[in-house]
Amino acid sequence: MTPSTRTAYHERLSVPLRWWVQGVMLVATLWLALIVAVPETLAWSVTAAVLGLMALAFLAYGSAQLSVADGTLRAGRARISAADLGTAEALDPEGARLAHGRDADARAYFLMRPYLKRAVRVEVTDPSDPAPYWLVSTRHPDALARTLNGLPRD
């Protein structure tokens, strides 16, 4: 972002600590299985490679970001102008589950993470956009919805 960019909201959808702990425990279990079955050097090499791949996967998956800056909502790689947005609604865990499951529209844009139970549903008002709404996971649905609803719709 340039210094002139004004950010109203920013959040990185990083993988939670419990995933890292469970992943390391899984790799430790792999090491235990290998250390008794193969030469020590091979066991350590395979374990290090698996640990590295797991870290890369978690960092890549958790790199998605939400931001509202200069009248634009960015969710992951997608972006949309505030002029094309309607009402934003903060969803509780049950509402997010239904909106991403039973009540989902296949044409909608989704940026969902299974470790984030709450979300924001943002109506898309641009008639040329095939997506009727965006549904994005967030740790702070009320703050994101308030920010989006407060944007000027020029």
Describe the structure.
- By secondary structure, the protein is α+β, with helices and mostly antiparallel strands.
- Helix content is 38%, strand content 26%.
- The protein has a 4-stranded antiparallel sheet, with helices on one face.
- Strand 3 and strand 4 form a beta hairpin.
- The protein starts with 6 loop residues before the first strand and ends in a 5-residue tail after the last helix.
Please name the defining characteristics of this protein.
38% helix, 4 helices, 4-stranded mixed β-sheet, 154 residues, 4-stranded antiparallel β-sheet, alpha+beta
Low confidence ranges: none
N→C terminal distance = 22 Å
Count of alpha and pi helical runs = 4
So what's the oligomer here? single chain
Shape verdict: elongated
H and E string:
EHHEEEEHEEEH
Largest sheet: 4 strands, antiparallel
Helix content: 25-40%
> Mean pLDDT, nearest integer?
94
The total of beta strands comes to 8
Question: What's the gyration radius in Å?
Answer: 20 Å
Helix/strand class = alpha+beta
What is the strand arrangement across the widest sheet? Answer: 1-2-3-4
- Strand fraction: 25-35%
What's the layout of helices and strands?
Blueprint: E1 7-12, H1 17-35, H2 40-61, E2 65-69, E3 72-75, E4 78-81, E5 85-91, H3 93-100, E6 109-111, E7 119-124, E8 133-137, H4 141-149
Parallel strand pairs: 6-8
Antiparallel strand pairs: 1-2, 2-3, 3-4, 5-7, 7-8
